[in-house]
Description:
By secondary structure, the chain is mostly beta strands. It has helices at 34-44, 96-99; strands spanning 13-17, 30-32, 52-59, 65-72, 80-84, 87-91, 102-108, 113-119, 124-125, 132-133.
Amino acid sequence: MFTSQVYRAAATATVRAVKRRSLLPTRAALSLTPSAVDRIKNLTAGVPNCLGMRIGVRTRGCNGLSYTLDYAEKKEKFDEVVTQDGVSIYIDKKAQLSILGTEMDYQETKLASEFVFNNPNISGTCGCGESFSV
């Protein structure tokens, strides 16, 4: 018998371009809103061996890049770890430069419930908001 593993994304995400802010030293590469912290706690609560969430980027969509969210079971060699309010976020080495200064939010509407990345570094997004360019 053949067995196959089915991989599911932990969550969906939307990207929003925000006005560039002056560069000030910050304590973390990524900041989380209270609603994002609550949602991540709910997502990771019942998952065995889960240390937190991993954020990465991959080439996808009409504008070039898209965020990926997965469960983090271990810290990779060059991962940046952001810990806020008891939640750990592991930022993949390929995503670190594009995510600096970003605020991660979680929003629920009648049509969707998703993480929203308010990123001052992106130069454009596609119409649906799933992909971006830096």
